[in-house]
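call fold(seq) -> tokens
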Amino acid sequence: MNPPVPGAAQLPLALRYPPDQRFDTFVGAPDGALAQLQALATGHERGGVLLQGPPGVGKTHLALAACAHAEAAGLRSAFLPLATAVGRLGAALEALDTCDFIALDGLDAVLGTREDEVALFHFHNRAMDGGRRLLYTAGTPAAGLTIGLPDLGSRLAACTGIALAPLDDEGRRELLQCRALRRGLVVEPAAIDWLLRRVGRDLGGLTRLLDQLDRASLAAQRRVTVPFLRQVLAAEPASDDAGTPGG
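ret:
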């Protein structure tokens, strides 16, 4: 989602932040992480948090969930995928100066670009001085990021770090069952086991796969069984290196 535009405040919450991307739909968070992010989003905790982990562990999911949580509490939030603002980050960030909570997703994308690093440094300082809260996501902890501007590196290092790890098989099973239940999708246990043997651990890939199965099940008016899975996925087998919109 891009920086706020005129009229954006009137959009229903579910249109700005997808209903699947909520704290209560996240599986496998470290102990205390969800409570910490909720407190950050609503202003009960100050400062900045750096949420890190490899692709597909749910960083974007939690960033969107935090934004939705802030707005449900009557605060102004913004979600900015940093990859969309490379080379023009200063202008994009200026549009967010009036928000109470800001999630900056994909920090790695803008590091190494001097003007973007400077813009981010100044924005971070403005946010902290104004009592606003920041949530960053990145592929590695602050100490492992390649940052050309030392002052920015020190600001990011001062953020509280939360590390996410890939789900194990039990976590993936819980995720599939939870997402299917929210969609009203009937998936037989044997079908979930079959899927787990054939798909990767990426949360975004699992979510897209459920979307595909939901549409196919509705169109065919069938339960999701192993034979039905084979039929639906025959043309487009699930890939272990699926993209990571839920990164």
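The first helix runs from residue 13 to 16.
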